[in-house]
Specification:
- The protein is α+β, with helices and mostly antiparallel strands.
- It is 45% helix and 23% strand.
- It contains 9 helices and 10 strands.
- A hairpin with a 5-residue loop joins strand 1 and strand 2.
- It is globular.
- The relative contact order is 0.17.
Length: 249
């Protein structure tokens, strides 16, 4: 599993019961609202909305909140007008970062993202500088307990999975973006527990970090993810398990 995926999993588990829940829910509901506005409110006909709703449910967002966000997106309820924007940059050790935002104020987003990069030893780059280093993929996370890599691959392959990557605690099933939902359902139908699923941006190459650089890069990622307008941060770092364990503790 890539370093950023492992760090995101650790943060998601730690964040489930802390004061960040309200901010996380707000961002996820904004994603649901925009997805419904752009592709309609019927989940079965809108893959982006399906992903947004799935991510919200994984974070324990109440269904009533999700349904209201969908209605705001479709115009049944009054809502904000958000637009998508992205920023690209470099962090310590030359790590590439791709930052996706949903905002109602581009100037605010730009200033906040720039300040986060500058404050954590990074720098913004021109559009296109790092986006080519990433490609959209579906990722389904399966805990290792109770199953094997072969079982996971056999269940997922016919539904469109491309690869299965193993780490100490989980299997990372890689899919084309359009197949992530089918793969998730195939695994669940086979009796295999699914921890999470999403469409993300995976790096084509990675930069391995030692403990010192890992702390600096993760500080930058955390600073960006704290911003209200930032929905997702993608990075091409890889941190060995023993280093990540030391940093996370």
């Amino acid at each position: 599993m890539s370093g950023h995926s492992k760090w995101s999993t650790i943060k998601r588990k730690k964040g489930a019961a802390d004061a960040q829940r309200a901010k996380v829910w707000s961002k996820l509901l904004r994603f649901v609202e925009v997805a419904a506005r752009e592709g309609g409110g019927i989940i079965e006909n809108n893959p982006t909305l399906a992903t947004a709703v799935q991510k919200a449910k994984q974070a324990s967002v109440p269904n009533d909140n999700i349904q209201r966000a969908i209605k705001r997106g479709t115009g049944e309820l009054q809502g904000e007008s958000y637009e998508e924007t992205s920023y690209e940059g470099y962090g310590p050790a030359g790590v590439a970062l791709l930052v996706h935002c949903l905002t109602n104020n581009r100037n605010r987003s730009s200033q906040d993202v720039r300040a986060a990069f500058n404050g954590a030893g990074g720098k913004l780059a021109e559009p296109g500088a790092v986006a080519w280093m990433f490609e959209p993929k579906g990722v389904v996370i399966v805990p290792t307990h109770g199953t094997t890599e072969d079982d996971v691959f056999l269940a997922a392959a016919d539904a469109g999975a491309e690869d299965v990557r193993a780490s100490d605690e989980s299997f990372e099933v890689i899919t084309p973006p359009e197949a992530v939902r089918a793969v998730r359902e195939a695994l669940q139908n086979a009796g295999i527990e699914v921890e999470s699923s999403e469409v993300t941006q995976l790096p084509k190459t990675t930069v391995e970090l030692d403990e010192s650089d890992a702390k600096k890069v993760l500080n930058l990622v955390d600073a960006l993810e704290e911003l209200d307008d930032v929905q997702d941060v993608y990075a091409n770092f890889d941190i060995p398990d023993h280093v990540l364990a030391a940093v996370a503790s």
